Amino acid sequence: MDAVFSAFAVLLFAAVILLVEGAWLWWSAAHGGGARRISRRLRLMAERGPGGAERVDIVKRRTWSSRPAIERLLRRLGPWCKLAALDALLLQAGVQWSVAQFLGALLVLGAIGLVAPAMAGLPGVGALLALGLAVALPWMVLLRTRRERLTRLEQQLPEAADFFGRALRAGHSFANVMQMVADELPEPIAGEFRTAYEEINYGVSMSEALHNLAYRVPLTDLRYLIIAVLIQRESGGNLAEALGNISRLIRARLKLLAQVRVMSAEGRMSAWILGLLPLVVMFLMSLTNPEYISVLWTDPIGVALMWYAGAIATGGVLWMRKLIRIRI
User: Fold this and answer.
1) Pair 228, 268 in one domain
2) Transmembrane region positions (predicted)?
3) What residues make up the domain containing 183?
């Protein structure tokens, strides 16, 4: 039983770290200073017609459930439960889940997290840890999927910018080049430009379609590309050359980022070791001498010390992550 409790403690600690990291990444991308400046610039440059808002709402509106009754309920609860932000995460992760399906998975796993510990006879703290891990699991999967997809899109963006530049020099229009990118380049970037091209064919203006693209793919490099296109549409200029410069800038940034990751590998490994060492030691001691370590969760003072140590360790891991994470 002590070994099971220790395993739950290790998994919950890792889940909390990943959940806090994912929430911080999402908040920085959506509400950071750079994101606010770029979004404000895009809003100022958008050309909204008299009926534009209604058309964009039709294009952007996603169903949160296949059942009308549940859809209406979720729409009422949306402003209070931030379901629109959850739907944005699902959209940016590229998964086929709806908001109702994700919430249903949370409820099912939460029920399992309540019933399974009771059937296994875990103590109250162990049951609480199991419930927290079960509820955190869907969020961990979603945030990891979103991060991996955005990383792939960021790596494909220079190739897309070069493709735009070559096609524009050959005399193609920007909308036609979007269709060519959707047909020629691999996923997931092809699917995003395909969606933007279909919106333009539907009747949405170019600026609004690019706005929607920036909403689905919250990458700073893509927003720079969109700003270059909007500036060219308003004031003119050599768009092919501008896209070529942006492509070279993105490639140089990605190259420098890879070098920084290599140089900071030792620091990241040290952070992992320092963060996991207390949990590993506690787990091994629970296997070799459970009577010695069991005081931590049987005595009230031991439980308080565990909560205090967990909070301090979490703060230390987040601080080490901030030290070794260099934004370029």
Assistant:
1) no
2) 6-27, 99-119, 125-143, 271-289, 301-320
3) 151-247
Report the SS3 class of residue 97: coil
3-state secondary structure of 287: helix
Residue 148: predicted pLDDT: 93
Within this chain, do residues 290 and 239 fall inside the same structural domain, yes or no?
Answer: no
> Does any domain span residue 74?
yes
Query: What is the model's pLDDT at position 21?
Result: 67
CA separation for the pair 117, 73 (Å, rounded): 32
Phi and psi dihedrals of 49, rounded to 5?
Answer: -85, 180
Domain count of the chain?
3
Residue 273 lies in a domain: yes
pTM exceeding 0.85: no
d(CA 143, CA 188): 17
- DSSP code, position 96: -
Structure tokens at 156: 């494909």
pLDDT tens profile 173-200: 888 999 999 999 998 999 999 999 999 8
Q: Is 28 in contact with 322 (CB distance < 8 Å)? A: no
B/e letters for 201-239, b = 16+ CB within 10 Å, e = fewer, are eeebbbbbbbbbbbebbbbbbbbbbbbbbbebbeeeeeb
Q: How far apart are CA 307 and CA 58, in angstroms?
A: 49
| Same domain for 70 and 162 | no
Q: What is the pLDDT of residue 142?
A: 92
- Hey, what are 109's tokens? 């796993």
With contact defined as beta carbons under 8 Å apart, do 128 and 203 qualify?
Answer: no
Residue 290: exposure state from Cβ atoms within 10 A (0-12, 13-18, ≥19): middle
